[in-house]
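In response to a reviewer's request, we include the raw inputs and outputs for one of the modeled complexes. The two entities were modeled together in a single run.
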Amino acid sequence: MILTYIEIRDRRVKKASLEALSEAARIAAELRTEAVAVVVGAGAGEHAAELFPYGAARVWVLENEALTRYSTQDHAQALADLSRKLNPAAVFFSGTALGRDLAPRLAAKLGAGLASDCTEIAVRDGRLEFTRPVYAGKALLTFELTSSPRVASLRPNVFSLARVEAGASGEIVAESFAASADRTKAEVVEIVGERGEEIDVAEADVVISGGRGMKGPENFELLRELARLIPKSAVGASRSAVDSGWIGHQHQVGQTGKTVSPNLYMAIGISGAIQHIAGMSSSKFIVAVNKDPDAPVFKVANFGVVGDLFEVIPALRDEIKKLRSE
Amino acid sequence: MNILVFVKRVPDTESKIKIGPDGRSIVEDGLNFVISPYDEYAMEEALRIRDAGGGKVTAVTVGGDASLVILRKCLAMGADEAVLVKDPLPETYDGLRIAKIIARLVTARFPDAELLLFGKQSVGADNSQVPSMTAELLGIAQANVVVKLEVGGGGATALREIEGGQEKISLTLPAVVSAQKGLNEPRYETLKGIMLAKKKPIPTLSIEELGIRAEEIAPTVAVVRVEPPPARAAGRIVTGTPQDTAGQLAAFLHGEAKII
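The model returned the following structure tokens for the whole complex.
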């Protein structure tokens, strides 16, 4: 059995969780076992049925008021209780902010090894092999975990969603959870600075990043304008743009920022320092716009434009609008 | 307040990584090693908290003798003390193993530590495991990827980055906090600090001295291979007027990448 933790935010199941569940179902089929899912928190049960089309044979629902607000300790305790009961071969998380906070806590509770931020999971001779980027993607590490269960977090946007099987159904199991008395030593008291519908660079389908060539913070508006034309896109930045104070560090892509694997990565006015390339080279398509024909970023680009971004980007915006209207 | 800061020696971010002849490790010869950048934010935060409210800052690393260099850097930045826990193994990419060593060190030698600061991940293994695992093994609170920290009155408030926003977390102490870029601007070492750091003895502890048996920290990670990422095929590079090149780019986004 492979158990997948399903993350719900703003009353929606996260796409990254569905990707993790889809992969769990694929692996489970290879291992001739079943994929099951767990949802946690008050009201979580209403999402259970959404999970069957992605391959969940059963969904455990841990509906408890104590679990409604995210607390790493309570959630880890609830998952550890369930895991000890079900004894899965592996527990999967999506490698979101929550997944990367919770998975190691659960792994330590279970004395289990953890494969963080995997980009590939394979079955070899009946055993799981995890592959993940190390050194921000300058190398790939493939390994087995010798513990049982194995815990893994799966990088968002990398694993494909299972084809939705319309009308798929399964069993929903309500499970109780007794919070321990000394719980809640850390509690989320508020979510602040929420940037509305803006997508995080780590989760976006398309990342449009600006670098030193943007020349100033005001020019990032050019990229935001482009992003508004492309669904599920986010604006990213190189380290030098962030360190110059042109844009917040949460937008930074690269070795001291986020490592991203979107469908399309656009490097605009970014020369392509090794730290930056490492953080985005696993993108499916890479586009670069740069004045300097010798910029290293062109070595990894599927499509490169040598030219002035302040001319090319507005022209591209107009071309996209034209395509849209056709 | 007694603060522990956990740091790690890693290849600097400009390093080109070469795969070792065994196909299961990287070549360390010729690499420039530094303190992991996120650990510097942790170190700076510890110094600021101490300077504001008093206490002691101890920098800790688990590694080989080569890691003494980064402990000296922490001392030069202003740490009061530093400790090296000698790890007999090279990089195992196994967070649980390191967390077990750290948890034992804290229990045995620093039971009164109130704040355990880490970088949010080491650049290299990029695991983001050790802070949370250490918190779990010690049964204390955690806040990861923190961009703002306020300590006082037996507790702390941390702002932690999540997708599209921040979580404000209320923590009881002792607690584990892992630092994200943006938490502060790390200071440079002063010449005086560097001179003082050179003279300061750095105690070394072995795994055995912490009462850890080798089998307790046997790695859960069994490396199959380390390989370079797949090379990207050469792409198409175009030059010309902005209208012309933008048109070709739009055609690429539409026809090949299928984005628009």
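As requested, we also summarize the result in words. Chain B is about 30% helix and 30% strand. The longest helix of chain B spans residues 37-53.
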